[in-house]
Automatic annotation (TrEMBL):
InterPro entries according to UniProt: Class_I_gatase-like, DJ-1/PfpI, Homeodomain-like_sf, HTH_AraC, INH-QAR
Listed PROSITE patterns: HTH_ARAC_FAMILY_2
Domain HTH araC/xylS-type: 215-296
Swiss-Prot/TrEMBL keywords: Transcription, Transcription regulation
The protein's name in its UniProt record: Transcriptional regulator GlxA family with amidase domain
Entry keyword Protease: no
GO molecular function, one term: DNA-binding transcription factor activity
């Protein structure tokens, strides 16, 4: 079981907490082995939005597969003081030192900076706070205009709703993009992945829509992209005509179902080639009969090259 600990601070923003908490809760509902815990210095936690929360006060025992996440908070006077008690601060540092992942949403990055976890690392925070964070933590490299940054087991995200993107990214790294896309679909949010990574999986990149029949067909293609998939069978599976499916799929993703499948095949082939496979072996592994089609698709402008 993976434990996700939300380390709560007074005045926290509800969406900083609720967004990623919903991602991991939904992951658990789909059968993944997650347990969400809420820990704070004091059992009663006031929030910036006026709703009080209750939390545990003792940090649970954690392993290297577990996650500690600090949501952001609002200050009354604009001064960002140290908000973590000595015990919880030490537990946060010890968890990271033992190989665990720590993360923050919005101004939660200041808490990570206070305990030295941003030193020498790339990071981000809410756009209105980036200059302040860079000034206070000169040894950190604050990255603007991204939703999240991952560097050495420390994952930081921008403001408020970007905590959802951070959590989906963490699910992607552990369980793959198809699982993250399914969770995003369940939550009725766009699946975005424009953190600091130059490549975004096609499974996520083309899920930025709310068309149910297209999502269902994408689920099938994602799971069976190595197989020969007939348009007629895909259309029949969702109860529409081939013409209707083609139009809906193209409007939602910018691709035909066949082209989407080809993009997935090429993307997976590039991963295999990057790990030492020959073009011929990679082509066979992803479902091409021979390497000629793979070479042709790889040579297209804009083709994925890892």
């Amino acid at each position: 079981m993976t434990t996700v600990v939300f380390l709560l601070t007074p005045g926290l923003h509800l969406l900083d907490l609720a967004g990623p908490a919903q991602v991991f809760s939904t992951a658990a509902d789909t059968g993944l082995d997650y347990r969400v815990r809420y820990v704070a210095e004091h059992a009663d936690v006031p929030t910036a939005q006026g709703v009080g929360l209750r939390a545990e006060t003792d940090m649970p025992r954690l392993g290297s597969d577990d996650l500690v996440l600090v949501p952001g908070w609002r200050t009354r006077d604009g001064v960002r003081r140290h908000v973590l008690g000595a015990g919880h601060a030490a537990a946060l540092v010890a968890h990271h030192a033992a190989g665990g992942t720590v993360a923050s949403v919005c101004s939660g990055a200041f808490a990570l900076g206070d305990v030295g976890l941003l030193d020498g690392r790339r990071c981000t925070t809410h756009h209105e706070l980036q200059e302040e964070l860079a000034r206070r933590r000169p040894r950190a490299r604050v990255i603007p205009d991204v939703l999240y940054v991952s560097d050495g087991g420390v994952v930081t995200s921008a403001g408020i709703a970007s905590g959802i993107d951070l959590a989906l990214h963490l699910v992607t790294t552990r369980h793959g993009p198809a699982t993250a896309a399914a969770i995003a679909r369940n939550m009725v949010v766009h699946t975005r992945r424009n953190g600091d990574e130059p490549q975004a999986s096609a499974m996520l990149r083309h899920r930025d829509h709310l068309v149910d029949i297209v999502h269902r067909v994408q689920d099938t293609i994602d799971a069976r992209f190595r197989s020969a998939l007939r348009l007629a069978d895909l259309a029949a599976a969702v109860g529409v005509s081939e013409r209707t499916l083609s139009r809906a799929f193209s409007a939602a993703t910018g691709l035909t179902p066949l082209r989407y499948q080809q993009v997935l095949r090429v993307e997976h082939a590039e991963h295999l080639i990057g790990r030492g496979a020959t073009v011929e072996a990679a082509a066979r592994a992803v479902g091409f009969q021979d390497a000629r089609m793979l070479r042709r698709l790889r040579s297209r402008p804009g083709a994925v090259r890892l």
